[in-house]
Amino acid sequence: MGTRIPCYHLFLNHLSSGLLFKDREDYLTGWNRILLCQSKVGIVIYAFALMSNHFHFLIRGTAEQAEEFFSHYQKLTAMYMQTKYGEQAFGRKMVMGDLVLIDSPDMFRTEVAYILRNPLKARISNPFHYEWSSCFVYFNPFCQSVPGISLKDLPISKRRSIFRSRTFAPDQYHVFNDRIVPMDIVDYEYVEKLFDNSIDFFEAIRNWNTERDVWRNRDEGEHNAYDDEFIVGKLPSVYKELGIADNEELDSVMTQLLIRGMKKRFGCSKKQVIRVTGIPEDVVKKYF
C-alpha cells in the first residue's frame, strides 16, 4: 500500500435488536461523531457507511488505533442514546467485528466497493444516492467544491448542537447544513487514485463480487420492503391502532398482532422486526 502503516476494514457487528440510527437526527449526529473520534485518535478514513444497525469504516492506522476509534465512538453513541432515548445499556450492544487487514491495492479497491455497496445490498438505496456514506464524494466536483462554514466561526452553543457533546473537533474543519463536510472526514483523493476514472469506480461498486459476500458470512436472505427508519416512523401509529403506547404494554396477543401486522403491512423480515421492536428472537420467530 506504499506505507508501513496498515489499513483496516473496521465494522460494527449488526445489532441483533434495536437500532443504531432511528431517525435523521440520529444519522446526522452519528455522522458528526465520526470527526470527533477521528481527530482524537489520529486515523485516516478512506470510506465509510452508516447503516441503521451497523457501520463500516476503511481506515489507515494501527490495530490499537482502530480499536480506540471504535471504543470512543461506542462511548459517545451510548451517551447520546441514553440522553435521547433513555437506553442506558446501549453501549454494550455495540461489538466490534474482527479487523480485516488490507494487504494490497486490489483488496483495498474491493473493500471500498463492499462498504459503499451496503445500501444496495440492504435494498435501501442506490449507493450513489445514499446520504449516510462517503460514496457521493468521490469523482464529484460539485460535492468537493462545497466550502462549508469553519467551525471556528460558529458560536459554542451551535458547536454543542452539532456534536451533541462538550468535546469539539479542531477549528480547521467545516460544516454545511449542520453536517461536517465529507471532504474533512475522508481522504477521497487517495481513493480516486486507485481507480482509473469515475466509470471504473462506479463499475467496481455495481459489479462487486458477491462470492466475497458469502465468504464474509454477512446476513443473507433478508429482504425488506422498507428501510428501518421508515418502519420506526410507522410504529407509533401501529401501537395506537392496537391501543397501546409502546412495547411495555405488549401482552402475548398484542405481540402476535404486532408482528403479523408488520409482516403483512410492511413486508418486514424476522430480523427487521427484532431490530426495530426489540422483541426477543425466540418470540418473533414463532410468527415466521
Structure at a glance:
Helices cover 46% and strands 10% of the residues. It has 288 residues and is an alpha+beta fold. The protein folds into 2 domains: 209 residues, Alpha-Beta Plaits; 60 residues.
CATH topology group of the largest domain: Alpha-Beta Plaits
CATH architecture of the largest domain: 2-Layer Sandwich
The CATH top-level class label of the largest domain: Alpha Beta
Order of helices and strands: EHEEHEHHHEHEEHHHHHHH
Radius of gyration: 20 Å
What is the typical, i.e. mean, pLDDT? 87
| Number of continuous helical runs | 13
Strand content of the residues, in percent? 5-15%
Major sheet details: 4 strands, antiparallel
Number of strands: 7
* Proportion in helices: 40-55%
Number of domains: 2
Q: Quickly give the structural class.
A: alpha+beta
Shape: globular
Low-pLDDT runs: 210-221
Distance between the ends = 47 Å
Write up what this structure looks like.
A hairpin with a 4-residue loop joins strand 2 and strand 3. The chain is α+β, with helices and mostly antiparallel strands and 288 residues long. Mean pLDDT is 87; it is low at 210-221. The protein contains 13 helices and seven strands. The longest helix has 23 residues, at 63-85. The chain has helices at residues 24-41, 63-85, 105-116, 118-121, 141-144, 156-163, 188-193, 198-206, 210-215, 228-242, 252-266, 270-277, 281-284, and strands at 7-11, 44-50, 55-60, 100-102, 149-150, 174-176, 179-180. Helix content is 46%, strand content 10%.
